[in-house]
Amino acid sequence: DAGVIQSPRHEVTEMGQEVTLRCKLISGHNSLFWYRQTMMRGLELLIYFNNNVPIDDSGMPEDRFSAKMPNASFSTLKIQPSEPRDSAVYFCASRETINQPQHFGDGTRLSIL
Amino acid sequence: GENVEQHPSTLSVQEGDSAVIKCTYSDSASNYFPWYKQELGKGPQLIIDIRSNVGEKKDQRIAVTLNKTAKHFSLHITETQPEDSAVYFCAASKGTGGFKTIFGAGTRLFVKA
Questions:
Q1: Which residues of B touch A (CB under 8 A)?
Q2: Can you give the pLDDT at residue B99?
Q3: How many Å apart are CA A108 and CA B110, to the nearest integer?
């Protein structure tokens, strides 16, 4: 089992640029979660999908953020245009079914200059 | 709304001592309570979980207790070792209402050798 795979592991870019974070779910998992982690705000849920359908995107900070699941095993989180306050570690996690543990990737450390 | 409170935010213990982290949850319908450990540069990883039909669960040096009436659950680590130093998160979820998991704010545990 390869686990949840996130790419890139680190991203440094200038403000105003488009940023795309990628996540590959564990095979057979049907839920996908995107989180943002900062020292000030801790672990924040941005959006989650169940069977490729967005269920709750109330945590998405602004319209600059968008997330997609083009298929059952892959998701992207896009920020356009990026701003310095978007700097954080972004995690995705997948889950096999309800009331099962989430499996986290090792995150993408994003720095917007 | 749904909320999980976690205490303490920081905990420092001597190697060999026990560590206890406590959480309370607001939604009485919650029925699944996982605990995660996050090491530096990694995503949170599940260490133990408990379901609402069980009052206590133990796995070697780690145990979790659940008091449904009081809506409290706790993590107990005995014979702590330096490698237990990490950030620990409690969480609560339920099988309805969108299948979302609510995380506590985290406890940073330091085990001094």
A1: 31-32, 34, 36, 41-46, 49, 51, 89, 93-95, 98-101, 103, 105-106
A2: 65
A3: 25
Please report how many Cα atoms fall inside a 13 Å half-sphere around the Cα of residue A39, on the Cβ side.
Answer: 1
Q: If we measure between CA atoms, which residue out of B101, B110, B109 comes closest to residue B49?
A: B101
* 3-state class (DSSP) for residue A84: helix
Helices and strands in chain B: count of H runs, count of E runs = 0, 11
| Closest residue, chain B, to A41 (C-alpha) | B105
State whether A98 and B95 contact (CB < 8 Å).
yes
Tokens read off for B2: 């749904």
Tens digits of per-residue pLDDT, B56-96? 999 999 999 999 999 999 999 999 999 999 999 999 988 65
Distance CA B72, CA B38 (A): 22
Give chain B positions within 8 Å (CB) of A42: 103, 105-106
Give the closest residue to B7 by CA, choosing from B110, B106, B111, B113: B106
